[in-house]
C-alpha cells in the first residue's frame, strides 16, 4: 500500500519571535524543516534564473564582481520603499515556492514543516494544511534580536516589525499558537502539538 502523503505545517511568527528555535525542536523530533527565509537567501545567490531576474529589475549592482549577492546594495535599495519590497518578493516568493515543492517530494515523515516569517503576508499559508504561530511580546522580541544581531539598530528592528502582520492577527489565523515569553517553556508546547499532528496522520 502507498504511504500517506505527509501533510504540510507552517511555522510562522514575527522577527525574533523564536521560529527557528521552535523549529530546531521539531527537527530533533525527526520532522524535516524547510527554512524558507534562509533558502530564499540561498536561491537569490545561487539560482541562475532568479539571479538573472534580480539583475534585470534591480540592476547589475545587485551582484558583486565574484557573482555573490550584493546584500548591502539590495537592502539599501528596498529598505524604505514598499513598492520595491513588493517587486523583489514577487521574484523571490515563486522561486521559493517551486523549490519547496521539490523539497517536499524528497522527504518522508508524518508531516513536514515550512518555516517563514511571512506565511500569511505572502499568501503561501494557503498551500499548507496547518499553521503554527510563534507568539512573543514585542519588547522581548526586540531585545532578543538586538542581542542576536549586533549589526541591527533598534530602529531597524522596529521598522521590520512595522512591515509584518501584527501578532494578534496571526494568532487568530493560526491553528496552533506557541507562546514564547519569559514565563512559559516552549518544549512542552512543541511536544503537545507534535503529538496532535502525529495523531492526525493515523
Ligand atoms: P527571525 O525572524 O529573525 O529569523 P526567529 O523568529 O527565527 O527570528 P529565533 O532566531 O529563534 O527567532 O530567536 C531569536 C533570538 O532569541 C535567538 O537568539 C534565540 O536564541 C533567542 N530565543 C528564542 N527563544 C528564546 C527563549 N525562550 N529564551 C531565550 N532566548 C530565546
UniProtKB/TrEMBL annotation:
Its main location: cytoplasm. Pathway: Cofactor biosynthesis; coenzyme A biosynthesis; CoA from (R)-pantothenate: step 5/5. This is Dephospho-CoA kinase. GO terms for molecular function: dephospho-CoA kinase activity. It comes from Algoriphagus aquatilis. ATP binds at residues 16-21. It is an enzyme of class 2 (transferase). It is found in: Cytoplasm. SUPFAM superfamilies: P-loop containing nucleoside triphosphate hydrolases. It catalyses: 3'-dephospho-CoA + ATP = ADP + CoA + H(+). Belongs to the CoaE family. Pfam families: CoaE (PF01121). Its EC number is 2.7.1.24.
